[in-house]
Design brief:
- The chain has 293 residues and is α+β, with helices and mostly antiparallel strands.
- The protein has a domain of 182 residues: Thrombin, subunit H.
- 34% of the residues lie in helices and 24% in strands.
- The chain has a 6-stranded antiparallel beta barrel with strand order 1-2-5-4-3-12. It has a 6-stranded antiparallel beta barrel with strand order 6-7-8-11-10-9.
- α2 crosses α3.
- The chain is globular, with a radius of gyration of 27 Å.
- About 3% of the residues have low confidence.
């Protein structure tokens, strides 16, 4: 005779225990998940140690993956250049892009020097690199934009240090592990960087949009002087980022600012440099004049 279609666990103590433990495990898992969600919302830094440890564990794999990605991209670029206009044309394009960045840096530095000499007669010192590293990974499909680099406390990296590439500013160190660090990209919604227009020093703030671009917000409201193609560099206001670092190019002008494309795209960046936190030079001490009290 065929077994009944509706079997109940009431006649089997083993089945009763199995059902009970299954329900209990599900309820416990649900409670633990809710607690973790509440903790992550109320205290975002609570799991920074675990994230740093996980980044340290996966850092060797990230280094290997990044190296393979760079090799594949180089092969594709060589094949594409061969079928379009040859390797020489591709090399000249890379040199031209680097020359444009160097020109922007030179213009920004010259403008900064003129302003400092005319106002405060101060002298800007050269930045000192802390470490060089490969950018092993970065988020590309999320409102939060982070990256991971292959240096940490073992190379003297600390929280808050700026990170840049050969083409411009990348972000700042957010969390530091033993041999890796987490970087907050300038395109993240929590990133806010004081900037200015390279050619004349129009002040503004760069706020991450979370979609790979930044929003340029002018400090002085009124007639918007920005134009497409304007290069924005860091201003150095408030410290942290040294002035004159290339950052973005304006692609769309708005009523109170603009939308800009970052110069250093993490998806195309292989190596980065971690810099010391920049601090504005202190004014010279006041010398009391005869008759002053």
């Amino acid at each position: 005779m065929a077994p009944p279609a509706n079997r109940r666990s009431g006649f089997s103590r083993r089945a009763q225990y199995s059902s009970f433990f299954s329900y209990a495990a599900g309820v416990i898992a649900l409670l633990v998940g809710l607690v973790l969600v509440v903790v992550s919302v109320m205290h975002p830094d609570a799991f920074s140690t675990l994230r740093s440890a996980a980044a340290d564990v996966t850092e060797p794999v990230g280094q290997t993956t990044a190296a393979g990605r760079a090799t594949t991209r180089g092969v594709v670029a060589s094949v594409t250049g061969f079928f379009t206009s040859g390797r020489e044309h591709a090399r000249l394009e890379r040199e031209l892009a680097e020359a444009k960045v160097r020109l922007v840096e030179a213009q920004a530095t010259a403008s900064e020097n003129r302003r400092l000499k005319s106002l405060l007669d101060l002298r800007e010192t050269d930045p000192v690199a802390v470490a060089f590293s490969r950018l092993t990974s970065s988020t590309g499909a999320s409102a939060r934009r982070f990256a991971t680099i292959g240096v940490g406390r073992d190379r003297g990296v600390v929280k808050g240090m700026p990170v840049r590439s050969a083409t411009g500013l990348v972000g700042r160190v957010l969390e530091v592990g033993a041999s890796s660090a987490r970087v907050l990209l300038i395109t993240d919604t929590d990133s806010l960087v004081p900037i200015r227009r390279a050619k004349d020093g129009v002040p503004a703030f760069a706020h991450g949009y979370g979609d790979g671009t930044i929003r340029v917000r002018l400090i002085n409201l009124g007639i918007n002087p920005l134009k497409k193609g304007d290069v924005m560099v860091t201003s150095g206001s408030g410290g942290l980022y040294r002035p004159g670092t290339p950052m973005a190019i304006v692609t769309e002008v708005l009523r109170d600012g603009a939308i800009a494309r970052v110069l250093s795209n993490p998806s195309d960046t292989d190596f980065v440099m971690v810099e010391k936190v920049w601090a504005p030079p202190l004014p010279p001490p006041h010398v009391a004049q005869p008759g002053e009290q």
